[in-house]
Amino acid sequence: MQLRFFSIPVKYEAEAEIELNNFLKTVRVITIHRELICQEGRHFWAIAVEYSIGEVKTGKKSENVKNKKKIDYREVLSPENFEIYAKLREWRKQAADREGLKVYNVLMNEHMAKMIEDRIKTKAELRKIKGIGDGRIDKYGDEVLAILKKEFAGLEKKNEKSGQPLLFDHKP
């Protein structure tokens, strides 16, 4: 950990602000301490930046994320499975909104697709999906399993009436 100190006058601060902002763009900031100082009629901000040198987060996606191919689950899943996927996606959006999270922090797309493809019915089966840990299972497991159970049962009834076999796999 390293420290760097800045003094930014309350009036005519543009140059000092630019210097501070340029510095902040080049380091990994740990914390910033600031205090308004009044000394001999001068007012200025005293700023101490704790930082480390290393990878700077720019807000841009890393190369791995940029180059990762997006999956269109409408093309990957059978129509029946995609209907279930859409229901899970709708539930995930509501759960994320309710908790103030990004949807991928609730469940990732690939998690939901895997649940459907594997016809997950229990929390033990959920645990086998890479990336779904006990925290997510405790928080969302009951809701997810209820949706899956209802949708799988609906598919079975629909397929029994039509005499068609159940479609669990990917599109050819």
What report would you give on this structure?
The chain has two domains: 2-52, no CATH class; 68-162, HRDC domain (DNA polymerase, domain 1). It is α+β, with helices and mostly antiparallel strands and 172 residues long. It has a three-stranded antiparallel beta sheet, covered by helices on one side. It has eight helices and three strands, in the order βαββααααααα. It is rod-shaped and about 90 Å long. A hairpin with a 2-residue loop joins β2 (28-39) and β3 (42-52). The chain has helices at 14-24, 63-67, 73-76, 79-99, 103-106, 109-117, 123-127, 134-162, and strands at residues 2-9, 28-39, 42-52.
For the structure shown, list the relevant keywords.
3 strands; 8 helices; alpha+beta; 3-stranded antiparallel sheet; 172 residues
Quick structural gist:
The chain has helices at residues 14-24, 63-67, 73-76, 79-99, 103-106, 109-117, 123-127, 134-162; strands at residues 2-9, 28-39, 42-52.
